[in-house]
Amino acid sequence: MPRKTTNKPPKPTKKATKKATKKAAKKVTAKPAAAKPAKQRKAAPKTPPRKAAKSAAKPKLLSGGNPQIAKADGDAPVQAYIAAMPIWKRDVGRRLDALIERTVPGVRKAVRWNTPFYGTESNGWFLGFHCLTKYVKVAFFNGTSLRPVPPVESKNKGTRYFHIHEHDQLDEKLLASWISQASRLPGWASFNC
């Protein structure tokens, strides 16, 4: 009977299998070739240090463009508030602040609830102003006692408002009269609020 031939490779011997296994194990445990170190890039700061310092000093604007200023007493926080007021509102803030200082020498100033407050030692806070989208709202805390009464009503008993829009002509004489009257009346809250 003729012999069958196959094209199968011969089976490896035990000795050959051991050699192949050792060789494969050496490849796995062998130290890899030293890789070139990757270039280490410094993570660039998102904003350069100068800009970061400026942005840290610049207050955040809340709705209506009202600056967010921390609660503090004195002229410095009020001036920081005014400096942070948007565009035309900043000029209104400067004019109001100057008018209040001229009308009530030695006026006490502070920022509370992101609003500049003005008061006297003997009567408490008598006025504050606040930026809204289309105007600056001046609040007279005992405004119903002023003559003439400021035009805008409030939900708070006794408080009256005067709104200053971008193109309004300020009647500084009337404002000075209201400021003078308000500073002599019992004001709102104590200075500790």
Secondary structure blueprint with pairings:
Layout: H1 14-29, H2 49-57, E1 72-73, H3 75-84, H4 87-103, E2 108-112, E3 115-120, E4 124-131, E5 135-140, E6 152-153, E7 160-165, H5 172-184
Antiparallel strand pairs: 1-2, 2-3, 3-4, 4-5, 5-7, 6-7
Could you walk me through the main structural features you see in this protein, from its secondary elements to its overall organization?
The protein is of the alpha+beta class. It has a domain at 61-184: Aspartate Aminotransferase, domain 1 (Alpha-Beta Complex). It has five helices and seven strands. The protein has helices spanning 14-29, 49-57, 75-84, 87-103, 172-184, and strands at residues 72-73, 108-112, 115-120, 124-131, 135-140, 152-153, 160-165. It has a seven-stranded antiparallel β-sheet with strand order 1-2-3-4-5-7-6, covered by helices on one side.
